[in-house]
Amino acid sequence: MSSRPPFDATASFKYTESPNPAWKLGDGLQATNPQAEQWKKDEQKGWKTWDMDKTPSRDRYKLLTSAIGPRPIAFVSSLSADGVPNLAPFSYFSMVADNPPLISIAFTLPQVKPKDTRDNIKATKEFTVNIISEPWIEAANVCSVDAPPEIDEWILSGLTRVPSDIVKPPRVKESAVSLECELFHFQDICPPGSDLVTNSFILGLIKRVHIRNAVLAEGGNTVDPEKLRPVARFGGQTYARLGDGFELSRPAWKDIADAVEGLTSQVNGKA
């Protein structure tokens, strides 16, 4: 990787037009630019299909983590029942709801070694999720090491502990967004027809949200993605940063109902 260009810390997130600003109802994929033209042309290469029931677990993992992305990363701080700290990143992570405020994390369970974070949350029912940003990604990445449970990843990373308000696990000072969470639901997952637990799924109830003032958008009630500089995951060893963004308004039915009726009549008339 040393032959690759250096990381450009000056690059920033910016808004652009959407890829096809002239798109209208019923247009589907329009080859209005070179990217779209190539996308349409690539249909001629066909599709490759995987039968998940016949695909080995290791191959499923590689395939799905490369195809489903970019994924946000939960950098989870937890404590064991004996008070041993743990810090680890997980990319099977998402926001689930705002009422109640819930996040989800899934843990893949290797048979040779349990996931400390999973065991800690099940035992203590508390944890914090810290959002990773570009300036300290290497410090977060080192915490993915398969260390013995007695090893303190905080020491490996050099990151700074900050006391939480209502849960015992600390949050990460370097993180611009930290969530104090309590366990809301825990579910072990087994493959169909098997009693072997291969994954665990949790829902976390967010009790406190801590956000650096420096990353808040104008008005102070939302986060500015350009200032947050979040990092996401693809497959293998690949991380990703934000590039350009664009806005698309959600259609209101009252605004498109007549056009949809006309389009439907036109399509049905051709059938």
UniProtKB/TrEMBL annotation:
Top-level taxon of the source organism: Eukaryota
InterPro entries: Flavin_Rdtase-like_dom (IPR002563), Split_barrel_FMN-bd (IPR012349)
Keyword terms of this UniProt record: Flavoprotein, FMN
MF terms (GO), sorted A to Z: FMN binding
Every Flavin reductase like domain range: 66-223
Keyword Flavoprotein: yes
Listed name of the protein: Flavin reductase like domain-containing protein
Source organism (scientific name): Gloeophyllum trabeum (strain ATCC 11539 / FP-39264 / Madison 617)
Taxonomic path: Eukaryota, Fungi, Dikarya, Basidiomycota, Agaricomycotina
